[in-house]
Design brief:
This protein is α+β, with helices and mostly antiparallel strands. The chain has one domain: CAP (Pathogenesis-related Protein p14a, 3-Layer(aba) Sandwich), CATH 3.40.33.10. It is built from five helices and seven strands. α1 packs parallel to α4. The protein is globular and about 40 Å long. The N and C termini lie far apart (about 35 Å). It comes from Tsuneonella aeria. One of its GO terms (cellular component) is extracellular region. InterPro entries: Allrgn_V5/Tpx1_CS (IPR018244), CAP_dom (IPR014044), CAP_sf (IPR035940), CRISP-related (IPR001283), V5_allergen-like (IPR002413). This is SCP-like extracellular.
């Protein structure tokens, strides 16, 4: 069975350790999986007219540790706030080996259909901010860095993306 699920929290990675990162924080190889994850975020941020993200090795290491933990557990759950510190977190899970980087991030971006600009959490046409929480983290204007990792567990791949500083902050405007 092919499918995916995902989860986002306020204030949130295929293991990408060893990904070449330039001094500026950009991923050197746009063709790399990490480069494709970063590019998918930045294409949407360009569309939303917010500053592009830089790749962070530190965030990717944190994301990798959590992705490995999720793969061992075989289920999605957010890291505790004290584990994430000042990082935002988006999670995704899908059938192992089936989804591309763009498909994974595309799940977050599909929430744009329910998004309406405004002060968080009043940002969803459905009235439920959780329906757009991944998307708002992707386009959060003050977020500057991202690091992601993916780990394979049993039948699923687990993507963890960490963002700094975190988005989805109550009372702040997005869009």
């Amino acid at each position: 069975m092919r499918g995916f699920v995902f989860s986002a929290v306020a204030g949130a990675a295929i293991a990408v350790s060893g990904v070449p990162v330039g001094a500026s924080g950009s991923v050197d190889s746009a063709a790399s999986f990490a480069g494709r994850l970063l590019n998918a975020h930045n294409v949407e941020r360009d569309r939303a007219q917010v500053p592009r993200l830089r790749w962070s090795r530190e965030l990717a290491r944190d994301a990798d540790a959590w992705a490995q933990s999720l793969a061992r557990k075989g289920r999605l759950e957010h890291a505790r706030a004290d584990q994430r510190r000042t990082m935002g977190e988006n999670l995704w899970m899908g059938s192992a080996g089936y989804y591309s980087a763009e498909d994974m991030i595309g799940g977050f971006l599909a929430e744009r259909a329910h998004f309406r600009p405004g002060a968080f959490p009043q940002v969803s046409r459905t009235g439920n901010w959780a329906d757009v929480g991944h998307y708002t983290q992707v386009i959060w204007p003050s977020t500057q860095e991202i690091g992601c990792a993916v780990a394979r567990g049993g039948q699923h791949d687990f993507l963890v993306c960490r963002y700094y500083p975190a988005g989805n902050m109550i009372g702040q405007t997005v869009g």
